[in-house]
Amino acid sequence: MGRIVVKSAAPVAETVEAAPGILIDLDERGVTVGIELLDLSVEIPSAELEHRYRIRPKHLQQLRTVRSDATTLSMGT
Q1: Which stretches of the chain score pLDDT less than 50?
Q2: Which of 18, 36, 59, 70 fits a 20 to 30 Å CA distance from 50?
Q3: Can you give the residue range of the structural domain that contains 13?
């Protein structure tokens, strides 16, 4: 369990469910300004997020790293 929220300071106009357990915050122009993983075990569909929401591969990798670190902390290792 657990969750991760990564957001910029930009205002959110809409939140969409990109995949089960993954919410994407969009600004008024449809640009991604935040990502929320509702569960640390959720699968991150990188190709879809890159294509549909124009999330850069380096940002997806950073999200995976944060998730891995959070999972390690929550397990107490």
Answers
A1: none
A2: 70
A3: 4-75
